[in-house]
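User: Can you predict the 3D structure for this chain?
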Amino acid sequence: MARVRLSVAERREELLRAAVEQIEVRGVSSLRIADVASVLGVSNALVLYHFSSKEKLVASAFAYAAEADLAHLRGILARRTSAVRRLRAAVRWYAPTGRAKGWRLWIEGWAASLRDPALREVAGDLDQQWKAELAEVIEEGAAAGEFRCEDPVSVAWRLTALLDGLALQMTSYAGPLSRATMIRWTEEALAHELGIEHAALTA
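Assistant: Here is the predicted structure, written as structure tokens:
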């Protein structure tokens, strides 16, 4: 059966989805253009037409996946409820699931960005956007009198650093750390940063 003809934007998105899936399965270092082409039944030349090199494909794939996650985060933080409840929901969503499939992608990206300036620039920019979104809600909650916080940006940095570190441990070393424990620790840290009781955070 003939393949459906896709627009340039649709084809590009199809390639990016396939690249994200292959990075999760194979890792950045083992990924080949041929792997992405094969799962879609297209030629290597078609992949290279849209992304002129493996490095550009990888950087674009990470940007694609991160933008989707950012959109989800923004949806959580835009809910019509208190800043405390939105921050707690964001922290719980940020924590990895038991399989941590998405976190494997980010760990691969962090490792690859040490050697790939283009990917490092993409990852760094997206990381700053994550922190800015959290800092904005923290500032909003402080202004509304829900809690006291003199430096929302620093709080956002500390929270994401804690989450990233715990997620790395949980994803890389199966067993020692449960998701429930990780969430409890991060909620305790969030409550401490906001100067409120843990019970008030979870009410």
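The mean pLDDT is 88. The chain has ten helices and no strands.
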